[in-house]
């Protein structure tokens, strides 16, 4: 008999109720429907496929792009008493043989596997003879060739429809706008999938962006009040990762490097330290990202610009997965822009792909320069309309200086209209600044009333105006039409002179965050809090697992506040299932008893 999903949620995972759209997603998957799930990091995506995989007959398959991701999730599931396993290149021949026997005997509930291994003909043929309850394709944005983290191995996953025709497939990712969502559905050949798009908002994250002056000095100033916290610092190059980690260690910060060029064993050791110890800072390239399930990462810093808003959102999503306050802090400068543009221009990609990458970079730069609520602009980029300011970003807490850009914006908008809304950034600026290039003369646009009306404004200023107009939704970029600039309905009041437009004035002004959030642990409870953490640390060390795989901070916080006296009260805590209580409950009750 099929076990009710709420019973699985309560007894195994230790949560009293579903969050957001989880229950509807789980129900659709259990009913055999394909699903596309867009849910922010920390929103509970894993439960959306883990519970249906357990509720339906057979073994669930989870397609995962990174070894670190699958190993971490399998360990977490095993602590809950779930027979989970992974099949990847780290297994010995004997381990693979034992796993195959377990699968043949029906002893595995959920199997994590990389796309390239799953798509091997012998693997597909073998698994096609088994009862497969569900196939989850995690990090599904990797299938999008226009996305920020495309992986060619994902393109073959459309075969799963033919090999497992009666098995529901659920594609999940934290980042995908409407265009990318359609591409995921098409490339994976999902069958009339139900689409579940949650809010992209991470209200617990404070967003802050500063112009780069002295990046290291700015970073150490930011870290000054966070020396007892875990965090990630992203750098663009491997060389910078290693030099920054070394410099931070000299400043007394426990920092480790991580990039694809490091020896595999060193990377694995550094990752283990980061996951299992407190107050470790990982300095990394984007090779370090997906699969980092550590819930108590309190900050993510960018010392260099990422390539796009999608990449930025994905990387900052590593912070505050437990729902507690966290920071996304970034510094950027002109050199970042030049370096990233050079990387795009010098790549072997098609011109169409290069245009797409340039457009994404310009959108990110525009977001860096916004004067209104930074969170609102970020959500608008992903197609989520939000009107109210968040009060939890730098532009809300310390509003930047603005200038009245109505007139130059009108000139720019008018030029876009008069040139037919079919040209990109460079051409529009050439006309505005009165440059008689061959192309301008070819179209006769030197005769337009807008020709040369912007020659008194520096090109960098025009680009700043344009980027801000794009990110605020006054102008759109048609990627499929050579990056043509087009006015949106929102631009009409500006163009007609019915409303004013104010933009960021001075990009070199520092935007400092006022104050720091204090710990939510009171002085009276601090001794108990430390004792609970020490108990967790001892258990995690003895079992060679990460502390959060024993209990998340949020569960310890509830223990500290509620001080449960018996099993019944312990089971009321979020994250405390039957198996978790059997394994760890008595030890923590002993600690609490000493403080009651």
Automatic annotation (TrEMBL):
<keyword id="KW-0238">DNA-binding</keyword>
<keyword id="KW-0347">Helicase</keyword>
<keyword id="KW-0227">DNA damage</keyword>
<feature type="domain" description="Helicase ATP-binding">
    <location>
        <begin position="26"/>
        <end position="194"/>
    </location>
</feature>
<dbReference type="InterPro" id="IPR002121">
    <property type="entry name" value="HRDC_dom"/>
</dbReference>
<protein>
    <recommendedName>
        <fullName>DNA helicase RecQ</fullName>
        <ecNumber>5.6.2.4</ecNumber>
    </recommendedName>
</protein>
<keyword id="KW-0233">DNA recombination</keyword>
<dbReference type="InterPro" id="IPR006293">
    <property type="entry name" value="DNA_helicase_ATP-dep_RecQ_bac"/>
</dbReference>
<keyword id="KW-0234">DNA repair</keyword>
<feature type="domain" description="Helicase C-terminal">
    <location>
        <begin position="218"/>
        <end position="365"/>
    </location>
</feature>
<dbReference type="InterPro" id="IPR018982">
    <property type="entry name" value="RQC_domain"/>
</dbReference>
<feature type="domain" description="HRDC">
    <location>
        <begin position="522"/>
        <end position="596"/>
    </location>
</feature>
<keyword id="KW-0413">Isomerase</keyword>
<dbReference type="InterPro" id="IPR004589">
    <property type="entry name" value="DNA_helicase_ATP-dep_RecQ"/>
</dbReference>
<dbReference type="InterPro" id="IPR001650">
    <property type="entry name" value="Helicase_C-like"/>
</dbReference>
<dbReference type="InterPro" id="IPR032284">
    <property type="entry name" value="RecQ_Zn-bd"/>
</dbReference>
<dbReference type="InterPro" id="IPR044876">
    <property type="entry name" value="HRDC_dom_sf"/>
</dbReference>
<keyword id="KW-0378">Hydrolase</keyword>
<dbReference type="Pfam" id="PF16124">
    <property type="entry name" value="RecQ_Zn_bind"/>
</dbReference>
<dbReference type="Pfam" id="PF00271">
    <property type="entry name" value="Helicase_C"/>
</dbReference>
<keyword id="KW-0547">Nucleotide-binding</keyword>
<dbReference type="InterPro" id="IPR014001">
    <property type="entry name" value="Helicase_ATP-bd"/>
</dbReference>
<dbReference type="InterPro" id="IPR010997">
    <property type="entry name" value="HRDC-like_sf"/>
</dbReference>
<keyword id="KW-0862">Zinc</keyword>
<keyword id="KW-0479">Metal-binding</keyword>
<dbReference type="InterPro" id="IPR036388">
    <property type="entry name" value="WH-like_DNA-bd_sf"/>
</dbReference>
<dbReference type="InterPro" id="IPR011545">
    <property type="entry name" value="DEAD/DEAH_box_helicase_dom"/>
</dbReference>
<comment type="similarity">
    <text>Belongs to the helicase family. RecQ subfamily.</text>
</comment>
<keyword id="KW-0067">ATP-binding</keyword>
<dbReference type="InterPro" id="IPR027417">
    <property type="entry name" value="P-loop_NTPase"/>
</dbReference>
<dbReference type="GO" id="GO:0004386">
    <property type="term" value="F:helicase activity"/>
</dbReference>
<dbReference type="Pfam" id="PF00270">
    <property type="entry name" value="DEAD"/>
</dbReference>
<dbReference type="Pfam" id="PF09382">
    <property type="entry name" value="RQC"/>
</dbReference>
<dbReference type="Pfam" id="PF00570">
    <property type="entry name" value="HRDC"/>
</dbReference>
């Amino acid at each position: 008999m099929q076990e009710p999903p709420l019973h699985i949620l309560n007894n195994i995972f230790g949560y009293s109720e579903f969050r957001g759209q989880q229950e509807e997603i789980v129900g659709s998957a259990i009913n055999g429907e394909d699903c596309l799930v867009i849910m922010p990091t920390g929103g509970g995506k894993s439960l959306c496929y883990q519970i249906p995989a357990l509720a339906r007959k057979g073994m669930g398959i989870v397609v995962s792009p990174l070894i670190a991701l699958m190993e971490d999730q399998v360990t977490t599931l095993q602590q809950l008493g779930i027979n989970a396993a992974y099949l990847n290149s780290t297994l010995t021949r004997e381990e693979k043989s034992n796993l195959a026997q377990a699968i043949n005997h029906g002893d595995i509930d959920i199997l994590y596997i990389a796309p390239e291994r799953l798509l091997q003909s012998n693997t597909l043929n073998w698994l096609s003879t088994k009862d497969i309850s569900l196939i989850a394709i995690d990090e599904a944005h990797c299938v999008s060739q226009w996305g920020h983290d495309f992986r060619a191995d994902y393109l073959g996953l459309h075969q799963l429809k033919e090999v497992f025709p009666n098995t529901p497939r659920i594609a999940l990712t934290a980042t995908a706008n409407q265009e990318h969502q359609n591409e995921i559905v098409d490339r994976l050949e999902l069958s009339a999938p139900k689409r579940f798009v949650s809010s992209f908002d991470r209200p617990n994250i404070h967003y802050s962006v500063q112009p780069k002056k002295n990046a290291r000095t700015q970073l150490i100033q930011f870290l000054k009040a966070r020396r007892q916290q875990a965090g990630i610092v992203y750098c663009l190059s491997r060389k910078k990762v290693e030099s920054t980690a070394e410099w931070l260690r000299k400043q007394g910060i426990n920092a480790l490097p991580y990039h694809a060029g490091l020896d595999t064993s060193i990377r694995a050791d550094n990752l283990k330290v980061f996951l299992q110890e407190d107050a470790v800072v990982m300095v990394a390239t984007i090779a370090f990202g997906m699969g980092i399930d550590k819930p108590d990462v309190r900050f993510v810093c960018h010392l260099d610009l990422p390539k796009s808003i999608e990449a930025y959102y994905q990387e900052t999503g590593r912070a505050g997965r437990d729902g507690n306050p966290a920071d996304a802090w970034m510094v950027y400068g002109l050199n970042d822009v030049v370096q990233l543009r050079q990387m795009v221009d010098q790549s072997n990609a098609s011109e169409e792909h290069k245009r797409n990458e340039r457009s994404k970079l310009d959108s990110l730069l525009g977001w860096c320069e916004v004067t209104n609520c930074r969170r609102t602009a970020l959500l608008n980029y992903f197609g989520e309309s939000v009107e109210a300011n968040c009060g939890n970003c730098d532009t809300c807490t310390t509003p930047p200086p603005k200038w009245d850009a109505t007139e130059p914006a009108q000139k720019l908008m008018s030029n876009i209209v008069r040139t037919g809304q079919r040209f990109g950034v460079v051409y529009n600026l050439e006309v505005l600044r009165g440059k008689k290039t061959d192309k301008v003369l070819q179209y006769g646009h030197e005769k337009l009333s807008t020709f040369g009306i912007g020659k008194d404004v520096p090109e960098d200023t025009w680009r700043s105006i344009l980027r801000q107009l794009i990110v605020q939704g006054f102008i759109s970029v048609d990627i499929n039409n050579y990056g043509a600039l087009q006015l949106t309905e929102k631009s009409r009041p500006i163009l007609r002179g019915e409303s004013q437009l104010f933009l960021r004035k001075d990009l070199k002004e520092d935007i400092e965050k006022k104050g720091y959030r204090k710990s939510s642990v009171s002085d009276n409870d601090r001794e108990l809090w430390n004792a609970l953490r020490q108990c967790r640390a001892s258990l995690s060390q003895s079992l060679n697992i990460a502390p959060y795989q024993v209990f998340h901070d949020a569960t310890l916080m509830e223990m500290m506040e509620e001080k449960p006296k018996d099993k019944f009260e312990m089971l009321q805590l979020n994250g405390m299932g039957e198996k978790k209580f059997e394994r760890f409950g008595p030890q923590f009750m002993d600690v609490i008893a000493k403080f009651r």
